[in-house]
Amino acid sequence: MPDRATLSRIAPFAAYILFIAIADILSRLGMSEMDLRWLYPLKIGVVIGMLWFWRREYTEMAWPPTLGTRDWLIAIGVGIAVFIAWINLGADWMVVGKSTGYQPVGPDGQLDWLLVAVRLAGAALVVPVMEELFWRSYLMRWLVDTDFLRVNPASVGIKAIAIASMLFAIEHSLWLAGLVAGIAYSLLYVRSRSIWSPIVAHGVTNGALGLWVIVGGHWGYW
């Protein structure tokens, strides 16, 4: 049975992946994108609830973050760079599977701005926290020592970074973009020794991507 420190980092991520699997199953059973559009708000709500329930376990997320101005600027810059890479690494050989993305429209075919807001907030504010707690705070350090809370991020080696980044890439249909992002966020974590650094970068990437999707109608990226 996992201890609370482990469970609190795995469970929100596992719930998120479970909802993706449920959506895929329901789609295969004939449910339309219109029928499934409210599944995302439910998914994000469950993840928020779990993160809040275990909030005291995330000792590395003490507020305010111990980041200097330079760290903030580097994290933001990396987030923007990953966004640029993400929208330019979409050649056929860089993609696994096919995603129609998430189209937050109502029955009239017009954008449902409540769904748009929830999707953007979920991607920019919730997903980065959930994923960085799992991929960087937990998995990357666990690959060094199963008692991962003892591991100083600065002592994480290339092997752990490579494994965690490759698995992070597999999670995404744009696998090469995912690999680039995984490596970038991991190096930020090692450099800053603060989970807030990759969280900020991840949030900037997802926020910029979300705005790009909304303005340009690039729904396949959602």
TrEMBL record:
Key words of the record: Membrane, Transmembrane, Transmembrane helix
Top-level taxon of the source organism: Bacteria
Domain CAAX prenyl protease 2/Lysostaphin resistance protein A-like: 117-207
InterPro entries referenced in this protein's UniProt entry, alphabetically: Prenyl_protease-related (IPR014346), Rce1/LyrA-like_dom (IPR003675)
Transmembrane segments: 6-26, 38-54, 74-91, 111-130, 160-187, 199-221
Entry keyword annotation includes Lyase: no
UniProt cross-references to Pfam families, sorted A to Z: Rce1-like
Keyword Iron appears in the UniProt entry: no
PANTHER family in the record: CAAX AMINO TERMINAL PROTEASE, CAAX AMINO TERMINAL PROTEASE FAMILY PROTEIN
The protein's name: CAAX prenyl protease 2/Lysostaphin resistance protein A-like domain-containing protein
